Amino acid sequence: MDKLVSAFLLQLENKNFSPLTIKSYREDLSQFLAFANARRQNDLRYFTSATVRSFLAQVQSAGHPARNTVLRKIASLRSFATYLLEQGKISQNPFKLLPSPKRQRILPKFLSVEETDRLLDTTAQSKHFAARDKALFELIYSSGLRRSEVVRLNVRDIDFFNGVVKVFGKGSKERLVPVTNTALEAIKTYLACRKNPRPQDPLFLNKNNTRLSGDGLAYIFKNTAIASHLARKVTPHSLRHSFATHLLNNGCDLRSLQEMLGHKSLAATQVYTHVSLEKLKSVYNQAHPKSKENL
Fold first, then answer.
1. What tens digit of pLDDT does each residue of 152-211 get?
2. Spans of all domains in the chain
3. Distance CA 259, CA 195 (A)
4. Is 219 a catalytic residue?
5. Model pTM score
6. What are the Cα distances from residue 10, in Å, to 17, 25, 224?
7. How far apart are CA 252 and CA 105, in angstroms?
8. Is 165 helix (H, G, I), strand (E, B) or coil?
9. Strand pairing partners for 10?
10. Is 229 assigned a catalytic role?
11. How many CB atoms lie within 10 A of CB 20?
């Protein structure tokens, strides 16, 4: 199965799956292959519901992983099984009668408006990359971009005239997202610091003047959060969650937010309706006849 797993992962790369997704699939399938090798069952004839059940039982008994981690491993194996069926390597789907546990709802962690402002202000204090970091953070908060999306941007993807950014999301699905004037000005300032940036050049560069990587972006966020003295872990996704929550709190409708976030289903966007207690309390106090504000 080793060669077939490699061929499957190569197909995902050719279909422009995100590097993070491919990395997760590779880790999950490598874990499954190690399990099969230990049982001397590294052969397609052993790729059955019984083997998958045994593998998942071992995963859940070792370390008690989160339910969503188990679901991700199921998704990886299910996609691999679909690939094998399409290639005619197996005749029966091992997942046909295998039920999946329900996904655990994890509420997104977001920053308050005050915390977000502090984080954005701190980027201007960067010793060597203040202009880049300011543009980077302002754009993510302005448009709610994923880590993988922002590092893939090229200079030409920013439309300064119309105030939008062209984003290539999961599965290389293209969408246009509005950009605030503050973010556009920060990007202009950053590009003015560079030597003749061309339309096809990466929008954000690292210290070696090559494209900023996802790991590089995470490192910048970690250091900026520390410098901001925020009492919580901050990641690029924290700013994306803050973008979504703040828009909803200020009257944005779910359908528009879904389009901007690049969510495939509205259900993925609806989680943000549960995260802001402050907004719920505000609506409650204004609407309930017995609330303190109405007495």
1. 999 999 999 999 999 987 766 889 999 999 999 999 999 999 999 999 999 999 999 999
2. 2-86, 113-282
3. 35
4. no
5. 0.66
6. 10, 11, 35
7. 22
8. strand
9. none
10. no
11. 13
The phi-psi region of residue 153 (left if phi > 0; otherwise alpha if psi is between -120 and 50; otherwise beta) is: beta
Active-site residue flag, 237 = yes
Q: Which of 72, 146, 241, 246 is catalytic?
A: 146
128 belongs to the catalytic site = no
Catalytic residue among 67, 175, 211, 237: 237
Write the pLDDT tens digit of every residue in 63-102.
667 777 888 888 899 999 999 999 998 888 888 777 666 6
Q: Is 290 helix (H, G, I), strand (E, B) or coil?
A: coil
45 is catalytic: no
Please state, for a pLDDT cut of 70, what percent of the chain lies above it. Answer: 90
2-86, CATH topology level: DNA polymerase; domain 1 (1.10.150)
Domain 2-86 shares a fold with domain 113-282: no
Q: How far is CA 171 from the centre of its chain?
A: 13
| CATH 1.10.443.10 correct for 113-282 | yes
Q: Which of 170, 175, 194, 211 is catalytic?
A: 170
SS3 111: coil
Q: Name the nearest CA neighbour of 202 among 155, 250, 169.
A: 155
DSSP annotation of 102: P
Catalytic, out of 73, 240, 241, 246? 240
Per the annotation, the verdict on 67 as an active-site residue is no
Distance CA 52, CA 2 (A): 16
